[in-house]
Amino acid sequence: MxxxxxxxxxxxxxxxxxxxxxxxxxxxxxxALYDRQIRVWGVDAQKRLSxxxxxxxxxxxxxxxxxxxxxxxxxxxxxxxxxRIVTEDALNANFLIPPDAVKxxxxxxxxxxxxxxxxxxxxxxxxxxxxxxxxxxxxxxDKFDVVVVSCCPFNNKKLINDKCRKRQKRxxxxxxxxxxxxxxxxxxxxxxxxxQKKTDCKSGCHLQYPSFEAAISxxxxxxxxxxxxxxxxxxxxxxxxxxxxRNPGDTSTSDLPVVLKLRKESCDAQSxxxxxxxxxxxxxxxxxxxxxxxxxxAILGGILGQEVIKAVSGKGDPLKNFFxxxxxxxxxxxxxxxxxxTNADGTNGQP
Amino acid sequence: MASLDxxxxxxxxxxxLMVGAGGIGCExxxxxxxxxxxxxxxxxxxxxxxxxxxxxxxxxxxxxxxxKAKVARDAVLKFRPHIxxxxxxxxxxxxxxxxEFFKQFNVVLNGLDNLDARRHVNRLCLAAEVxxxxxxxxxxxxQVTVHAKGKTECYECQPKPTPKTYPVCTITSTPSKFxxxxxxxxxxxxxxxFGDKNQGNDLNVRSSDGADSSxxxxxxxxxxxxxxSEQYARKIYDHVFGYNTxxxxxxxxxxxxxxxxxxxxxxxxLPDRITKKNAKVENGSTESAVSAMSSxxxxxxxxxxxxxxxxxxxxxxxxxxxxxxTEDIGNLTFDKxxxxxxxxxxxxxxxxxxxxxxxLHSLFEAKGIAGNIVHAVATTNAIIAGLIVIEAIxxxxxxxxxxxxxxxxxxxxxxxxxxxxxxxxxxxxxYVCSETxxxxxxxxxxxxxxxFVEKIVKNKLGMSSPLIMHGSNLIFEVGDDLEEDVAAxxxxxxxxxxxxxxxxxxNGTMLKTQRRI
Lengths: 351, 517
Known about the structure:
The structure holds two protein chains of two kinds. The model of chain A is unreliable at 1-23 and 344-351 (pLDDT under 50). Chain A has eleven helices and twelve strands. Helices cover 39% and strands 20% of the residues of chain A. In chain A, α5 (109-120) links the parallel β4 and β5 (125-128). By secondary structure, chain B is of the alpha/beta class. In chain B, α2 (23-34) links the parallel β1 (15-19) and β2. The model of chain B is unreliable at 207-214 and 280-288 (pLDDT under 50). Chain B: Pathway: Protein modification; protein sumoylation.
């Protein structure tokens, strides 16, 4: 019911109809506003985007960058969740909130971000949802096509990912983490089919994504030899935070001895040489904690925005299934970390 | 961490110049402010347009028409009120932005959209010895490079692809692609009808025997007193799509290996007038929103119109120019944001395409080709801006061993979407950043200094106001501030052949040329 109303709301705002196709329209206003990007991805993709509903949970700098990108691109709606009150730390990489908002004790982070995001594009419906996403009814997820969590504790990440997977329609799940100058994006599009365009001929493509839990359960020795060191390092840190009951990024260099112990245990259990997880890298991650490096927020938020646009529009090869960027080497790397296909005829999209 | 503190300090102390407050610029200014930069100067001559708003997120509908640099500054100060941002609503090529001006900065960051301005900034940065971080995006592709004098290649060390040009005869007589029809419609027909009458124009086809058909053609573009605007439009139509094509067809040689075009006459396409004869002529009031599409009830810019529809648009657009925009005629240049101009060029290009058996295109597509519109999305600009700041911080820390040029790719290459590579060394024979002499083969007893200045120094080397020296003797310079007698002397030199200059240029002479400061 709520969804239907919402949709009506959207269409009523599309004032003058100019582009007609499949009974759907882009208004003259949209055509003018989106001119340059329609030249990149076409009218059909723009229309699909305008019917997409996105949920973002956790509004740190990276998530804010992502929100800006998809509001500008013209998604149908964006719902944001973050009940924290505004602190100076929370504004470190946030360009949506003026610094004097720290005094505004009545408003949550999400409410303040919402006001600014609305201004970016009056044609996108931006709203706030209060509460804890892990506690909301499963049906809540049906409202969305894409769910993005940022800086989310390990258990919640798994839980939310599973909730997305249990819905009848496909709800794409993305998680993004930025620790100092290192970042990770995870993507789960479940079963995803799209058309691949290769030099003028189109061919159908099918990708099978594992859940976050299934992906990180792939034994390390089964992984290709050159997997990003960040993949392993972040799993060790994740484990540390889980054992200690800490929030993501609630770390410092003084945690290094315990983390090194965990590294040894993990590497022994997975028969991986410890040199794959350099001490220096772990130290950097622990020291950075939850503090984000703003240029990296822009990069991760940009890649994530692009991936969501690709996935909902069906244009371009979507990322499968991890992305890493480390400012130290400047490489933006894709890793496919998936269990081998379960069925004899199981195609997992590997060439 | 000591290194982190020194980094924070370096950022705080830095004075940076941003050139461009557009797609990359908005993202860059935001990321610089968040990263702790406190003294940012920003130059942009542009004002805000509606088609910017999908990605230049510091701007709103209410800002349309205002200075990009100034609005961007105000928007960023809202979330970082205590930093200094100095905007310049000006062209970076203005003389106030000279070498001295550039010298005050620790690093220059480019977010430009054209080769000319990029070359200009590159040269100023080299002269001022300030490192430059250069960038560019189209669609999902982008790149960031660092240029530091003597350490890495400069922006011009490698030849850059120059804007595509087409042979004149392809445009005037033998188009084979839609873009040829667009160039014809925009640069020849539109310019002939609405542009400066004193400009040379190759619109009219010469017949094969060399006899100029000027008797016929010179009058045709003049509107006779007894012609109403539609009669005039129909006459132009017959001339450019019918008569001119017949003339071109007469040259049999041309069509031996080509498909012969079909001349198109108005009476075959649209025998009846679209406006009543002797209809009341409206006064020539200049309205900005005049559109042939809306007066004909065509709504969708993505539709490909039929020949009849294109013909109607052609007639109506031409009529509207005459009736509604009388004052503009004679001084118009094609502007992609001028709806009526885009409609006219689309229709004319399509009719010509139809004549030559080339597939027709929609107004949306034609506008993109005619306006050289660069495809742009917010995400690529955001990513590129992040990469620019990463390189800028390395420059401030003097960490040149770690400078990288980074490509943002659409499809992964070796698993990478963002691919860093080590910057190239300076090109030793680069005429911009190296001292290596260039070898010029020229007949010094027939070539005039004027040819050398115009064709070599200005065109090839891209120096707009050069100073040319032979040993310690000045041969030539350009400038508004020259003494009268000096200027007269240079003017005299221009018409001398090189070997007869006061200090003769002959075989083996070494000339020195530099931008005049």
